[in-house]
Amino acid sequence: MPKPEFALNLFWRTFALLALLLAGGVLAWQQTFKVLEAEPRALQAAQQLAGLVNLSRVALEGSDAINRVTTLKSLARSNTVQVRVAEDSDHWQPYDINTFARRLVTELRQNLGQDTVVARSVNDDEGLWVRFSIGPDAYWLKTSAAPVSVSLSGKGWWLVIALIASVLGSAAITRLINQPLRALSEAAHRIREGEYDSRLDETTRTSEIRDVNTGFNRMARELAKVEEDRAVMLAGISHDLRTPLARLRLEAEMSVPDEQARQFMAQDIDQLDAIIHKFMDYARPNELRREPLELAAVVEREAQAFRWPDQIRIAVALPSGTKVWADETELARVLLNLFENARRYGHAPDVPALVEVTCTQNGPWVTLQVRDHGPGVPADMLARLTTPFFRGDAARTAANGAGLGLAIVEKSVLRLGGQLRIGNAVDGGLQTLIRLQRAN
């Protein structure tokens, strides 16, 4: 299955969800406190404004025309409360722009009358304006230089600290949640690499994790026992088969008078011995020891054993100094099987196989390319080439093979921490790409 282009591991996904949840909770509480503060402040402000309006109304109603003008001039010069005559040409903006303002307007109209006008600016002069009437005349009362509102801007530091604490808490909680899962993932990876002695903590206090660890350890013990039994069985099979094969070879050389028949029998016995060797390579890999290896030196050494001009010709074009992290025996096994596969199937009839070995470097990776110029493989069979004992059409498979060569290649590349891709070259032939970690 193809991997998604963008994927998060469990830690970052859990961290993101927890951080969003806690940050959303902080913001929600901030808005809740703001709303809960708005209503009592609106009631208090409405009562104070209503008292000021009523006081101004009484003062103006009890004055004659001359004293009223004097009173208005005095109030217009005040820094706290200003009263001025409302003109028909005045333009104003309504005050009910948020929950607090709407609550304030409602309370004022209940106290002063439904015809009361509350504005946040009059003639582009911002403030808290209340218009009231005394007989046929109307007046504006201004109590502040800016509209009254509920704001937590002065406590912004508290919000920042709460958000930072939410992020740090999310990281700590996520780490605690994912720690046993990471340990399980690492243990499973070691099992895949053949380290069947990996064990997990069975004394943890979390019952679900304890049950999972117990089950994993039981599985690891069973796998170790199965692997040990299989190794013993294969060693016994190998010994029991090779002994009669050696006797058959000796008897054939001594009792068969026909030289050609004797050669054919010897070839069959050698083939059986090679197949047994393949079985052992696939079923019982050597212990892995990764170290920096000179790629060109290893490839050149393995290619030297296959340079039979009448069967295979190998052209190596690798830059010197390129090193990869690999086990020398495991990497040699990969190259041996690829060259053997090309020698048998990567050529036209009666023509030696031509193999080209090159490499490219991309960041921390080195991609080794082994390509022959044979007939290639049908597209519908490419995905099954690394299946143990799989045999395709006769172009690349024959009865003299065990069907394990490319399966061994894939298994060894995975044990080296690399990636394998097999496909047909554009201009013909089979192309194998091996991606290994760069060591320099």
TrEMBL record:
Regarding the membrane, this protein is recorded as: Multi-pass membrane protein
HAMP domain segment(s): 175-228
Q: Key word Flavoprotein present in the record?
A: no
Q: Where in the cell is it found?
A: Cell inner membrane
This enzyme's EC code(s): 2.7.13.3
CDD domains, sorted: HAMP, HisKA
Write one Gene Ontology MF term: ATP binding
Q: Where are the transmembrane segments?
A: 157-177
What cellular component terms from Gene Ontology apply here?
plasma membrane
Query: What reaction does this enzyme carry out catalytically?
Result: ATP + protein L-histidine = ADP + protein N-phospho-L-histidine
| Coiled-coil blocks | none
What are the entry keywords?
Answer: ATP-binding, Cell inner membrane, Cell membrane, Kinase, Membrane, Nucleotide-binding, Phosphoprotein, Transferase, Transmembrane, Transmembrane helix, Two-component regulatory system
Give the domain of life: Bacteria
Where the record annotates domain Histidine kinase, the positions are: 236-440
Q: What is this protein called?
A: histidine kinase
